[in-house]
Each structure stands twice: as C-alpha cells, then as structure tokens.
C-alpha cells in the first residue's frame, strides 16, 4: 500500500509535466500517419507497441523493485487491450507510461529525480491548488448566475454602509485584486514553503530568515495566477472547447517545476542573513523613493544629485569605517587600495550617470514642459501591455526607471572611455605626472 501511495504522490507531482510531454509524444507517433496515405491510428499504436517492448527489455535489466517491473508489463498489456477492445482514445494516454518509467529509472535523469523527490510535497500542493483554482475560475466564468449574485451582494453591502452604488465597479475591482493577487498567492506560496520545510526537515539558524524567500515565492505565485487569469480571458473570448482549454492550462501548470527553482535554491541556502536582508530592503526602498522623486521633481533632484553626490560619496562610503567597532575601540583602520579604486569608479559612474540623464532630459523637454523621450516610452509600454487602465503614475515611474537604467548603461561605457583616455595621458611615466 505504501508503494502505491508513493507512486500516486509522484504521479500528482509530475502530472502536468508528464501530460504535456505525453501530448508531444503522441504528436510524434501520429506524425507518420499524416504523411503516409491509408494509415490510421492503428499504425501509430503498432509503433507504440514496438517502443513498449524495446523499453520493456531495458526496464527488465534495471536494478529496480520487481513490483515496478511487473507493473510496467501489466499496465502496458492492459492499455493495449483497451485500445483494441474498448476505445482508440486510450492511445492519448499510453505514452505516459513510457515517460514515467524513463523519468524514474534512467540514470542521466538522476538530478531531475532528486529535484522532484525533494519537492514532491510542494508540487503535490501546487498542482492540486492550481487545478482547483482553474476549475473555480472556469466554473464562475461559465455561470452568469454566480457573477450576478456576487454583484448583488456587493451592492447590498454598499447600501448597508451608506456608500453610493456608483462605486460598485471600483469595489469589485479592489476585491478582485485583493483576492486573486493577494490572498490566493500568499496561501499558495506560504503553504508551499511550509510543505518543503516539513518534508526536508529544514530548521533555520538564529541569524537566518526566510522573509526574502516568502516574498520571492509570493511574486512567482502572482506570475502563475496572472497567467491563469490571462489565459482564461483570452480563451473565453475565442469560445474553445473545455478539453482544449484544460490542455492549455495544463501546459502552464507544468511551469511550476521551473518557477519554483529560485525559491528552492533560496531554501537550500537556508534563506538570507537577517541583517543583510534588512539592509538590502532599505536600499531597495531608497531606490524606489529616488525614482519616484526623479519622476515628480526631476530637474531639482537631478541638479542636487549632480552637484553633491560625487562629493559626498567619498565621505559616506570612504569613511564608513569610523562607525565600525574596531575604530570605536581605538584600533587603526585604513582604507585599502581596493576601496580607493572602488570610490574612484563609483564617483566617476555616478557623476556620468547624472550627466547623461541631464543631457537626455534637456534634449527631450519641449516648450510646454513635456518630456518627449518619456512620452515615447509610455506609448511603447501601452502598446506592449495593451492595457489602457494602468495608472499614469505607474507608467511614468516605470519610464523614469528605464531612462535611469539607460543613462547608467551609457555612463558605464563613457566612464570606461574617460578612464582609458586619462590613463594614456597621466599614467605615462615619460610625461612625469606621477612618480
């Protein structure tokens, strides 16, 4: 019974990937019948039987439990009999057996098996959760009565709170976003990480935290949920049959094995150092604040940074040692040559980044105060996203970020060119600038 239960767990964990690969395998087997006239699905079944026999010999030679060897032949013979006696549609699932045994028995797939083994409970949870989520979305979308009931319930709630029903659409959007992009991803990611920790008996040292891992899992879950909802709206408009829709969803659910890899690696590293994570988070927040300020009061901020940042960097970073424990205890702390080089490059690149950004802004500003380059980026983003309801503030901030990154890219190469020219001029010993 334990062996059968173990097989079932592995099948659930591998089901989306195996179904996707099975469909590809079926397409390959059916391909000859599409080119050769007077051949039907029986010809493809004969090809499958030959492959089943050939790989069956290999399975018999493998050092695996006799139970699994017998199960291979029993399932193979049974599906062949069902194909000829009951329904030709059995052919669609027959390659699943070959792929499953290849995944469990082949030596060159050992790393893949180890990955699946360590994440078996996670993929069980993700696959079941995602299939249920997709089923709920399809069920609600196919029943107008449920949608009307939800809408009427929201209207009654607004009336009880003395809120105008004019805001019904806004409330529906907020509740939709809160449910699908907050509650659903949090439950999905949090329990997935909990299942992994329980299965692999992971305990954290005192100075390690999983805050970043949970955030990463949350954002990756948002990607999955967004994909499922996007597929629904696309396929719902096209009126495809339910079988095709489920097959498409299955392909995307199969990506769980790939999207989980960053979280898996983070868990194997036991998360992040608490102090380092807090400092990185503060740095990210400061960066976002700077981007927002650049978008809102661009000229003032750039002017201030251009004059003061290159001057203050050597003090802020170069003299950070003055608040170290060693320095406070009276020990001598001297910046290394690596720090001197780092400060030189940091000052050069920061100044050139601000310079390039200033030049771009100067050439892009029109007489009426519009930023031509930023407006161009916003139009491109709207064309790519194809969504007119996005906030103008978000688009402007994102376009400002693109301009900053573009300025940084140009500043990097400009700095390398300037340094190379200065080295040729001032570091030539024959010119006597340095001894």
Give a verbal description of the structure.
This protein is mostly helical. It has helices at 2-35, 41-61, 66-85, 95-105, 110-118, 120-142, 144-160, 168-200, 211-238, 242-253, 256-259, 261-268, 274-296, 298-316, 325-328, 337-364, 372-385, 392-426, and strands at residues 208-209, 272-273. The chain has a two-stranded antiparallel sheet with strand order 1-2. Helix 2 (41-61) packs antiparallel against helix 3 (66-85). The protein is extended, with a radius of gyration of 30 Å.
Offer a quick outline of the entry.
By secondary structure, the protein is an all-alpha fold. It contains 18 helices and 2 strands. Helix 9 runs antiparallel to helix 12, helix 13 packs across helix 18 and helix 14 packs antiparallel against helix 16.
Mean pLDDT: 79
How are the strands of the largest sheet arranged? Answer: 1-2
Strand composition percent: under 5%
Distance between the termini: 82 Å
| Biggest sheet features | 2 strands, antiparallel
The overall strand count is: 2
Features:
435 residues; mainly alpha; two-stranded antiparallel sheet; 18 helices; 2 strands; extended; Beta-carotene 15,15'-monooxygenase; membrane
